[in-house]
Design a protein that fits this description.
Blueprint lengths: L4 H12 L9 E5 L1 H4 L8 E7 L10 E5 L2 E9 H14 L8 H11 L2 E4 L1 H8 L4 H28 L3 H22 L10 H8 L2 H12 L7 H17 L12 E5 L3 E6 L2 E6 L3 E5 L1 H8 L7 H9 L7 H9 L3 E5 L3 E2 L24 E2 L2 E2 L7 E3 L4 H30 L3 H22 L23 H10 L7 H22 L11 H20 L9 H6 L10
């Protein structure tokens, strides 16, 4: 160790004076210095062990003693015993083993007793070192397999640079597994060079460092393939089993809680009933080509058959965002992870900034290859979309009512109907920008500051129309013309300019019902608020009118 026994005892004595008294502690030194590593900047990690029933804190106390940083942790014998039991319970399934738990157990088992040696050794005896070596080696081996399988998949998908990074991660984890089997179980990879020096196999050490130093040029798929092959050769020579040689055993599988919803040509993918991803035209075509359960190369070939250029990176994006998953035949889901890094799992990208968020045909999307996350929770997205469609139905109905009122000279009816149409159009505009629940109709014009500046021409026209009165056929005709112009402007700003003229014919009504049905299915799936109670009948009839001749 870089500190003598006397130096450690002196640091311990000075540290204990800053802690509350009353418990008899056994003390052991953990961490890099106890392992024989460390340097002048390394922490001094003391673990205090007591036969206490108190609920001891997990967080360490941080002290500064004689120019050194000292961390003091306290654990009861019972809690340490529970840690070892939990480790043994999950040992048969390394993928479930907590890295933090493994690290805590490792630090204790390789610690250096300073006081209360008998109690420290009693606790250490709860899990023999040889047994822990096997658990640690299996844990590292599991992670190495996951990383190398993931690298193989990425290479297949044309993501060669990312494949190289994961091949390197698999390389580290492979050699850590090998070293753990020899007793070098310290988890932190930064001391790997010293661990390999102590392992006594310069051939393994030197080959590892040569592989780590190899740097394929960015975008060079052939060099990336050669590098991955060399890493796989090394892993096999270190007796790591289950490493891939070809991508066929990798299959693309469904992820629980991921569902697909299409409105018009736009594809929406809901993740975990909470987040909505909207796909551009190319991304949507690749998504629709997926046949889950097939080997990755076949899935890639089917995606290429859509005519989309370079579909592999789009499939990689679906994997990255957790919209599909990879599985290894007979080996479960491929879940790569890096040691002592951020937890692995689906990536959540920054929300899309496209405006407006919604249109009647689907969410706004940033481009043909986009896989955009909407900045709305899924239920609000569905509710806003349904409100957008329904508001446009109300607009169509109000315009029809206005036309009839003007024909009969019903000027007051015409005024109120026109206002109803304007309010409904504004409700659609608010909905298209994700506002839900909506302000009251009487409050809409006072809440226009919720909308982006690009909508101001449309909202200004709507504001002008609301106070309009009618006292003659000439004024009525002008109102109808201005209302239709306003509706077109608002619909253009709301992405609803393709909305069918619902009440013009049986065909346009059927088109309206189909459009509403597409959104209602999603809203019902997410338990979102339906715009009107009658919408349930449209769901029950699968998008058809409820009263149909048989």
């Amino acid at each position: 160790m870089i500190l003598t026994e006397d130096q450690l005892q002196d640091l311990l004595e000075k540290s204990l004076t800053e802690l509350p008294h009353g418990t008899e502690w056994a003390v052991t030194l953990e961490g890099s210095i106890a392992e024989g590593f460390g340097n002048p900047s390394s922490d001094i990690d003391f673990l205090l062990v007591g036969r206490t029933e108190d609920d001891l804190p997990t967080m360490p106390s941080l002290l500064f003693v004689d120019g050194r940083r000292v961390e003091i942790r306290t654990r009861s014998v019972g809690r340490l015993a529970a840690q070892f039991r939990e480790l043994e319970k999950d040992a048969a399934r390394p993928g479930r083993l907590s890295e933090d738990l493994l690290n805590r157990c490792q630090r204790l088992l390789h610690s250096h007793p300073l006081r209360g040696h008998a109690l420290v050794e009693e606790v250490k005896a709860m899990l023999p070192l040889e047994r822990f070596r096997r658990i640690a080696a299996d844990w590292w081996a599991h992670r190495a397999r996951q990383a190398l399988r993931h690298a193989t998949a990425l290479l297949c998908l044309g993501e060669s640079d990312e494949a190289v990074d994961w091949a390197r991660a698999g390389l580290v984890q492979t050699v850590k597994s090998w070293a753990a089997g020899l007793g070098e179980t310290y988890l932190e990879p930064k001391w790997l060079s010293l661990q390999l020096d102590r392992a006594g196999r310069p051939d393994v050490r030197d080959r590892y460092w040569r592989l780590q130093a190899a740097t394929p040029a960015p975008g060079d798929a052939d060099a990336a393939r050669e590098h991955l092959t060399a890493c796989l050769d090394f892993a096999e020579d270190l007796d790591l089993t289950g490493v891939p040689r070809r991508p066929e055993p990798l299959t693309v599988e469904r992820v629980r809680g991921v569902t697909t919803w299409q409105t018009g040509d736009r594809v929406h993918v809901v993740r975990g009933r909470r987040e909505v991803f909207v796909l551009g035209d190319d991304a949507g075509a690749v998504w629709r080509s997926l046949v889950l359960g097939r080997p990755l190369p076949r899935v890639l070939a089917a995606a290429a058959g859509t005519g989309v250029a370079e579909p592999g990176p789009l499939l990689a994006a679906f994997l990255r965002y957790g919209l599909v998953r990879l599985a290894w035949k007979g080996g479960g889901t491929v879940s790569p992870a890096l040691p002592l890094a951020a937890p692995s799992g689906p990536v959540t990208p920054p929300p899309s900034t496209a405006q407006p968020l919604l249109s009647v045909r689907g969410a706004a999307v940033g481009g043909p290859r986009a896989v955009d996350l909407l900045p709305l929770p899924a239920d609000r997205f569905a509710a806003a979309a349904m409100a957008l469609v329904w508001s446009n139905v109300v607009v169509e109905n109000a315009v029809e009512d206005l036309t009839g009122a003007l024909q009969r000279g019903q000027w007051r009816v015409a005024e109120l109907t026109a206002r109803r149409a304007v309010h409904a159009a504004l409700r659609g505009l608010f909905s298209a920008h994700g506002v839900h629940p909506l302000p009251a109709d009487s409050d809409l014009v006072r809440r226009l500051d919720l909308l982006p500046p690009a909508t101001r021409p449309a909202t200004a026209r709507a504001r002008e129309l609301l106070p309009r009165t009618v006292g003659s056929a000439q004024e009525g005709d002008a109102l109808l013309a201005d209302l239709r112009s306003c509706v077109l402007l608002v619909r253009g700003a709301a992405g609803a300019d393709s909305f069918p003229l619902s009440f013009e014919s049986a065909d346009t009504w059927r088109a309206t019902l189909q459009l509403g049905y597409d959104w209602l299915r999603l809203g019902s799936h997410l338990d979102a608020e339906l715009p009107i109670e009658e919408a349930r009948d449209l769901l029950a009839s699968n998008g058809a009118q409820p009263h149909q001749a048989r």
